[in-house]
Amino acid sequence: MASMIAVLTLGALADGASDKADRKASSGDELLRRSVLPGAAYGVFVPARANGFVYERGYHSADSTDLVGYTFRATGRGYSSNVETMVGVDLYGRITGIKIISHQETPGIGSKIAEVKPPKSVLDVLGATSGAPFPRKVPVDLEGAWKGIVEIRDAGLMGELEKAVAGRDTARVVALAPQAMAADRGPTPAGGGALTYKLAQSVIKKLREDVMPWWQAQFVGKSRAELVLAKEKSDKSIQAIAGATMSSRAVTESVRNAMVQLAAAIGGFKEAKK
To answer: At 46, is the secondary structure helix, strand, or coil?
Structure first.
């Protein structure tokens, strides 16, 4: 009897751990979808399947209205591993975002497909985005603010932060990133929290440009016809990483092939207005 109870207990614990892992994975997938299809960041994703192809419909609203695009996974064989990518596309078949979520390519070579090149310093960020030198004598924890906002991005809450900053919702900004409100600890040229919002807006803008892996960023805005690997940089193709052609091809071709499957599954993309 004791052994039977032990077996049942271990089984229940294993099932509980498995359910918890499944919920965590599901939550992670949801954040990925929202990051690659920003138009549905506050909406809902509905699973779909057609012709054996699995994808999600992304809606702007939580009541499944206003379809804005689709998300799907693409997998291709790289130099030393399978490379899995989450992709978002709009109704016209233009990529809204991609995120490489799994790979074991050669460090320093093939791994550049997921490499991020952060700015040299937050002061450089602010100087480049504000159009004017940042008041360096102001006692502001810039590095803390940067880290706080990066953490928000990683948690899939960038959309909420942007909304709070745009609406000057101080309470919400504080709730999202206490570190980002460091500017309020000292005097500011404009008084109050004005510097806080300037700081947040600048960092958000730079995050959009620099924190997305530089190689993946060139996919955004492209159609499947433009997913062609090339040696030179072009608006109509994807530039291969020097020394990592196989890794570059794995992502480019897998995403293009998956987009062909998606188009067949949904009956084709809309034609862009001329």
So the answer is: strand
The CA-CA-CA angle for residues 182, 186, 187, to 5°, reads 130
CB contact burial 160-176 (16+ within 10 A = b; e otherwise): bbbebbeeeebeebeeb
Identify the three-state secondary structure at position 93.
coil
* Amino acid identity at 55: Y
Distance (Å, rounded) from C-alpha 209 to C-alpha 265?
A: 32
* Phi, psi angles (nearest 5°) of residue 53: -100, 130
What CA–CA distance (Å, rounded) separates 250 from 270?
Answer: 27
What's the pTM value of the predicted model, to 2 decimals?
A: 0.64
Give the whole-angstrom CA distance, residue 154 versus residue 100.
14
Half-sphere exposure of 64 (CA within 13 A, CB side): 5
Q: Which of 240, 220, 259 is nearest to 36 (CA)?
A: 220
The confidence score (pLDDT) of residue 267 equals: 95
Alpha carbon separation from 137 to 133, 134, 194, 258 (Å, rounded): 11, 9, 16, 52
Question: Helices in the chain by DSSP H: which ranges?
Answer: 2-36, 122-130, 142-154, 158-166, 170-176, 194-206, 214-217, 245-266
Could you report the per-residue pLDDT of 256-271, keeping only the tens digit for each?
999 999 999 999 999 8
